[in-house]
């Protein structure tokens, strides 16, 4: 990896990680459902959907993918925290909440990515 590419990756990673930290620093629960991780996963997927369309539309250099997709969205979203939250729900025998956590994190993240792509496609093809 070239030095300039590493800078793009590092900047995106630091900004994404900082934003995730700020969003998840105070636990936000709906009953026993952890919402913070769900929020960052949905936001990150939505932003990634927007970026995919802009990247294709503007024929962006791959370094921008390192900045936005790999760095920012990769650091903002969090599979490991989602897995930990799910494991904790399982350990505490909150089976219905576990199912909701899995369905919402996966389903809403995919939906947010599709929504981001659809909205941005409508805007650029306006």
Record keyword descriptors for this entry.
126 residues; mainly alpha; two-stranded antiparallel ribbon; 2 strands
Written description of the protein model:
This protein is 83% helix and 3% strand. The chain is mainly α and 126 residues long. Helix 1 runs parallel beside helix 3, helix 2 runs antiparallel to helix 3 and helix 2 runs parallel beside helix 5. The chain is globular.
Main sheet specs? 2 strands, antiparallel
- What's the β-strand tally? 2
- As a percent range, the share of helical residues equals over 70%
Rounded Rg: 16 Å
Strand residue content: under 5%
* Total number of distinct structural domains: 1
Q: Give me the secondary-structure category.
A: mainly alpha
The tally of helices reads: 5
Secondary-structure element order, as H and E? Answer: HEEHHHH
Shape: globular
Q: Could you name the ranges where pLDDT drops below 50 across 5 or more consecutive residues?
A: none
Across the major sheet, the strand order is: 1-2
Mean pLDDT: 94
* Span between termini: 37 Å
In terms of topology, how is this protein built?
Elements: H1 3-24, E1 29-30, E2 33-34, H2 35-58, H3 62-76, H4 79-91, H5 95-125
Antiparallel strand pairs: 1-2
A few lines on this structure:
The protein is 83% helix and 3% strand. It is mainly alpha-helical and 126 residues long.
């Amino acid at each position: 990896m070239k030095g300039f590419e590493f800078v793009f990756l590092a900047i995106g990673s630091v900004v994404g990680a900082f934003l995730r930290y700020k969003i998840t620093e105070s636990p936000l629960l709906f009953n026993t459902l952890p919402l913070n991780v769900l929020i960052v996963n949905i936001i990150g997927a939505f932003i990634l959907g927007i970026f995919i369309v802009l990247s294709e539309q503007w024929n962006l250099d791959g370094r921008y993918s390192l900045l936005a997709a790999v760095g920012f969205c990769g650091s903002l979203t969090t599979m490991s925290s989602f897995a930990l939250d799910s494991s904790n729900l399982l350990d505490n025998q909150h089976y219905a909440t576990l199912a909701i956590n899995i369905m919402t994190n996966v389903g809403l993240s995919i939906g947010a990515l599709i929504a981001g792509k659809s909205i941005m496609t409508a805007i650029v093809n306006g």
